[in-house]
Amino acid sequence: MRKLCFNPKTPSFALARNSPSSPVSSTSCPTPPRLSFSEPTSIDEDSFIEEAEALILKWNPDSSAYAKVTSLFYQDKIEAKHYINCVNQLHQTMHSLLSHNPSSPKLILAHKLMQIAMKRLKKEFYQILSMNRAHLDPESVSARSSRTSANSSSSDYDDDFAAEDDDIRVAGDSISEVEQVSSAAMADLKLIADCMVSSGYAKECVSVYIIIRKSIIDEGLYRLGVEKLSSSRANKMDWEVLDLKIKSWLEAVRISVRTLFNGERILCDHVFSYSDSVRESCFAEISRDGASLLFGFPELVANTKKSSPEKLFRVLDMHAVSSELWPEIESIFSSDYSSGVRSQALASLQRLTESAQFLLAEFEATIQKDSSKSAVNGGGVHSLTIQSMNYLSILADYVNVLSDIFPRDWIPPPKSSSLPESYLYSPDSDYSASTPALTARMAWLILVLLCKLDGKAKHCKDVSLSYLFLANNLWYVVARVRSSNLQYVLGDDWITKHEAKAKRFVANYEKVAWGEVVSSLPANPAATEARVVFENFNLKFEEAYRKQNSYVVADRELRDEIKGSIARSIVPRYREWYNDLLATVGSVRELTVTVYVTFTPQDIENYLANLFLFGKSSSAVSSSSSVTSSPLRRWS
Fold this sequence. Notes:
Elements: H1 2-5, H2 13-16, H3 45-58, H4 65-69, H5 72-75, H6 77-100, H7 105-131, H8 138-147, H9 161-171, H10 177-198, H11 202-223, H12 231-236, H13 239-271, H14 276-303, H15 311-332, H16 339-368, H17 383-395, H18 399-405, H19 421-424, H20 437-457, H21 463-482, H22 486-490, H23 492-519, H24 530-548, H25 556-585, H26 588-592, H27 601-609
C-alpha cells in the first residue's frame, strides 16, 4: 500500500531532526535560555505573559526570517514542547484574566499572542503532515497500531516527548525506520492538535488535516483502480470491460477497508483523541467521498442492464466480499457522522442480494424458454444440459453466499409453474417442507432442466431413442453433481435416486430397442424349428444393430454398462440355440454353410462390443417425426 500510494520527494522532518547531518543546525540562530512554565495559578500573570511573548514572537514567521524558514518541531523538539506548554498556559491565563479582570490590556495582548501561536502551530501541523506523507501512509499506521495494541486506546498515548522517544528506543530493531518516523510524527501531530483544539482553534487544525489526508485516501483509491463511474457509462460498456472493473474492485476493496480506511481511522483517532466529536467529524469528512465511491460500485453494477452468464457469479463475488468486510466497515465507520457510508454499504449489499435473486430466476426462465424442439442426433447429451450443469456446478461453489441470499422459507410455487402436474405433486419429490432452501432451489432448477429435456425427448424419431436420450442426459447430470459441490448441496439421497432413474431409462431403452431380438430366441429350443428361429433372429438383430449403432452414448461407464447388459440378455440364449444346432449337424463347418445361420456367438459378442462406437456426433437436429405417446414422463 505504501509503494502504491506514496512517492516522497523530500525527507521527513521527524527523520531529519534526529540526523546529525541536518542542513539547519541549532547555531543558525541564538537560542535564549529555556523557560520553565508551571501551572498559571502559581505564577504572576504579567510576568508569564511577558515570557510567553518572547517565545511566541521568536517563532513568529511574520516578524522573523529565521522562523519563516525553520520548523520548530524540526529544529528543536525540546523547545517545541516548551512552546506547546506555553500556549496551553497562555490559554489558561486568558480564562483567568477574563474571569477577574476582563478589561485588562494583558488580555488583549494574550489574545494577540494566541492568534500568532495558532498560526505558527497550524503551519507546523501542515508541515508535519505534508513532509511525512510517506511515513504516515495507512499501512505504516496500521502496522504501528498492531505493534502497540496494548496502547490502542487513543486516550492511552503519552503526550510527553521524552516518553515517546524512550518507547522508540526500547523498540529498537523490532520496528522499521518508517514506523519509527511514523510514531514520532503521530506524537507531534497529536501534541499540536490537543493544543489547538483545547484552545478553541479546532476548525483551523481540522481544515489542514482534511486537505492533506483526504488527498491520501483519494490518491490511494485511484491507484487501486477505484474510479467514479456513472450509470449511463456502465451500461454502455462491453461486459468484458465491466468485468475487468469488477475484478479490480474485488482486489481493491479489501486493501481499501483493512489498510487505507483502517489506517486513516487509527491516525485520526490518535491525532484528535482530545475530542470525540472532532475526530469523528474529521474522519467522516476525509473518508466520505472515497468510501461512498468504493461502496457504491456494487450497487452500480447490480443496476446495470448487462446480460451475461457470468454476471451472477460476479454479483455473488461482490456480495461475498461485502458481507465479509461488513463488520470491519461497521466498526471503522461507526459514528453518526459516517452513517451515510454505512447506509451506502448496506444498500449495495441489499441490491446485490436482489440482483442475485433476479439473475437466478432469469437463469431458470432461460431453461424454460428454450425453444428448440429437437433432441440430439443419436440421443446424446443436449447442449442445454451441458450449459445448465456447467452453470449450476459453478454456482454450487458459492454455497455460503447463496445460503444468505435465498429466503429460508423458499419453496417452488406449484400453481404458477409450467411444469407437468405429475412432477409437482409426486410423493417422491426432490424437496419437502423441511428441505433447506438452497437444496430445494438447486433441486428445483435441475428438475426444470429435466422436464425440459422430457419435452425434447417427445420429438425423437422413435421410442428407443427417446429413452436413450433421457438416460444419457440424466446420467450426465448425476455425473456433474458427483464431481462438483452440488453433491454436498443435494446430498447422497438425491444422487442415488436420480442414478436409479437413469438406470430405469436404460432398462426401458434396452427393452424397446432389443426386446424383439431377445424374444426371437425362445427359451425352449425344442419347441420351435431352428430355421425359423435363426432366420427371425438374423432379421431382428441386423435391423436393431443397424439402427442402434448410429446412436450415441458418450459416457464410457454408461456405454459399457449398456453393452454389457444387452450382451447378457442376448448372447447366452443365442449360444444355447447355436450349440444345440451344432450338436445336431455335427460340425461347425456344416453349421456355417447353412443359409439360416449367419452369426456365431463370438460374432454377436464382437458386434455388441462395437456398439455405439460410430455415433459420436451430438449436434442437435430436428426429428422427422414425433412420438405420439411419450413414455418418458417418469422422472419421479
